[in-house]
Amino acid sequence: MLNFGQFRRVTVLTGAGISAESGVPTFRGEDGLWRQYRPEELATPEAFARDPRLVWEWYDWRRRLIGACRPNRAHHTLADMEAGLPDFTLITQNVDGLHHMAGSRRVLELHGNIWRLRCTREGTTHEDRRTPLPDLPPHCADCGALLRPDVVWFGESLPSEILEAAFAAAAACDVMLVVGTSAVVQPAASLPLIARQRGAAIVEVNPQATPLSDFADLVLRQPAAQALPQLWERWQHP
Ligand code: OAD
Q1: What is the β-pairing status of strands 218-220 and 201-205?
Q2: What average pLDDT is seen over the chain?
Q3: What pLDDT is stored for residue 160 in this prediction?
Q4: Which of 64, 112, 149, 225 could join 73 in a cystine, given CB atoms 3.0 to 4.6 angstroms apart?
Q5: In the annotation, is 139 catalytic?
């Protein structure tokens, strides 16, 4: 068993699995979104250029679904960890905003946020939590151009400042918790490998095996809402 009290710098990487118990569908599981929908038809710049209404209908549906979900004990535990640990960084691939809703203050959102809209002409962003959106596809109030979800689509680069901060946190940590990700989408999937190369301990929380499992120092094969509160309890009271 790892001695968690020894870890000073803690980095966490989360994926869709942490929100599964809140009711948000994952991408690659049995009921995963990519089993039912083709990413290239819905989550690429080409798809948006071809048929913005179709893409927006899909995002509007997801926004409604996510809007009805609340953070679970795993999200809340990570907010408690941020408050209780001196050097803590949370990196997420999720766009659902549930970490913020749970009280996490600093979240490196690698793939953007589904509640933010971005002007395709000016690049400006703003939050809009209305569900459903009144007009599909929505247009910029300032310049009239199409708005898009401020999320990263296949074939697009990740926001560079956020990605740099994530790589820095991976390289500098003593332990990385990897929670609810299939660990196959780059560049997020390389963050735990960087942490490990730099000597950090890797803890995986996932009911299923992933390509990362063999590299992990500790594997908790449990749902995150069960594993994380227990882990944090042991961490504080060894
Ligand atoms: P995936 O859907 O690929 O993987 C979800 C993982 O969560 C799987 O490994 C499950 O075993 C695990 N899981 C399911 N329920 C869980 C639970 N209760 N507790 C813990 N783990 C659980 O989701 P991601 O790895 O996040 O990208 O996918 C990465 C990216 O692929 C997403 O951000 C999205 C997608 O295409 C973009 O949209 C750019």
Answers
A1: parallel
A2: 96
A3: 97
A4: 225
A5: no
